[in-house]
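Running this now, will post back.
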Amino acid sequence: GTVSATGSPTPSPTPVLPTGCETLLPFTDLDRALGRPLFGESRFTKGVAQASIGRTARVTCQYGLGRGGTGVAYVEVGISTYTDAEAAAKRVQATISAARGEGATQGEATVGGVPATLLGGGKVVTLVLAQGSRTVAVTLQRTLARTLGTGITLNQATTSVAEKVLTNLAE
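Update: finished.
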């Protein structure tokens, strides 16, 4: 027999989040962004909604971990969805303010046409942006700087990772 659905599909109010690191940022994309292979394991973490800041969902992927997912990730990508674009923008501003409060430097970047902020901290460089009701945060350990591909700075690598993430989220 045939099954037919009645009614109209309900539009999803928030973007769909990736279900694993291989869809968010495959190692091949990561290696291209860094200009060299990044070895180690990856770890996917599904976060929780946080009503107080309007967050509806969160996923994090960490790359370059030691065997068994140990140690500090060389690269971390966090994607969150919010109730609306205003809540996402507020969250980015809160992240920037917190980093500045800890002494981070602040610079501007553009990722796939989306304005972004680069934050330089003691041990990491982080790029944050809001794209509609979604936020993207990409963090690279400063220790990666000395092993990046020829002519690639840490800021360029961070921006390049974010560009690949946005491209993959759009697919």
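The longest strand covers residues 55-65. More later if anyone needs it.
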